Amino acid sequence: MKKVIKKNYKIVVGLVIGILISATVVYASQTVLMGNEVSYDNEISGGNSNTVQGAIDDLYDKVNKSKVPKAVNQNIINVYYYDQKKDSDNFCVTGDEKTCKYDTCYLNETKDSCPSGTIIEYKVNDESENNIVRFHVVHDDGNTMTLQSQRTIKYNVHYDLNSDIKTNINNILNIVEGETSGWSNVNNFDYSIGEETSTLGYSGCGYDNDNVCKSNTYSLSKQSTNARMITIQEAQNLGCKISPNYKTCPIWMYNYMYTSTNFNGTVEDIDAFFGYYTMSTHGDNNMLYHIRANGVIYFDSIIDRYGVRAVVEINK
């Protein structure tokens, strides 16, 4: 399949100049002509100069003054349009499907120009091998995008039911940060758990028995990091509902888990068990909600085998 072509305007200019001079410049062997020594007819081009060198200078000046797209984040390797409808000509859930189509939404700085689910192949650092990680867009904020890793980055993360919620969340966040500490090409950002924000919602939410989030019930000090976990509010904004509403999450959120193919998932990962943690807790029972392999938000006490997926922020 074709790679996404990132615009190189000097190449374009060079091609144009080649066309301009191809029918004009004739030179003999062992003869070198300087650009300012070769004339050409500027009537067609509308330029100000009648030499090739002057034409090059004029054209570069026009390109520099024109409204061309900005230089994109060079760590974005490929972008694929997400479509989970299996009968679609553009079916694409993981980025490996033959029907996947490349997308250039990352060139657009308008909010939500890259829809949630869009697949981003991203070079997380410049040093290590296997440094290309696939993500999905959680939300596009215009100049930046919030992404979640396509796969679990750490299996079997311990959760201590005898410790308080703050201790457990801090421990898990430390694991996320440790697993992503080498991801130098993602943004470092600040967030606070327990404050209501437009992107995290009630990040310190404790759901009541009706599974309704009405307020923050716990808080943590300001975090400065390059990765976190998803919140229930973000998951709900993506369509997920709390159990027993199976298969309400988009497939990319619960793909690559054990038994996910039983619920319209396309790829299983037995080591990922049945789910991965979020940053949201269920009321006073000291349990974190997780995204489950059957496409739903859930919680239970069998939590030592759940994993984590990284939520990061990148520039367009």
Which descriptors apply to this entry?
alpha+beta, three-stranded antiparallel β-sheet, 5 helices
Question: What would you say this structure looks like, in words?
Answer:
By secondary structure, the chain is of the alpha+beta class. The protein folds into three domains: 57 residues, no CATH class; 74 residues, no CATH class; 151 residues, no CATH class. The protein has five helices and twelve strands. A five-stranded antiparallel sheet has the order 1-2-3-4-12, with no helix packed on it. Helix 1 packs antiparallel against helix 2. The protein is globular.
In terms of DSSP E residues, the strand content is 15-25%
Structural class: alpha+beta
**Which residues sit in consecutive blocks of at least 5 with pLDDT less than 50?**
1-33, 62-71
Largest sheet: 5 strands, antiparallel
Strand order within the widest beta sheet = 1-2-3-4-12
Structure summary, number of beta strands: 12
Shape descriptor: globular
Distance between the termini: 23 Å
Order of helices and strands: HHEEEEHEEEEHHEEEE
Radius of gyration: 26 Å
Mean pLDDT: 79
Layout of helices and strands:
Layout: H1 9-22, H2 52-65, E1 76-80, E2 119-123, E3 132-140, E4 144-149, H3 165-179, E5 189-191, E6 196-197, E7 201-202, E8 223-225, H4 232-237, H5 251-254, E9 275-281, E10 288-292, E11 296-298, E12 311-315
Antiparallel strand pairs: 1-2, 2-3, 3-4, 4-12, 5-8, 6-7, 9-10, 10-11
Helix pairs in contact: 1-2
Q: Care to give the gist of this entry?
A:
The chain is α+β, with helices and mostly antiparallel strands and 316 residues long. The protein contains 5 helices and 12 strands.
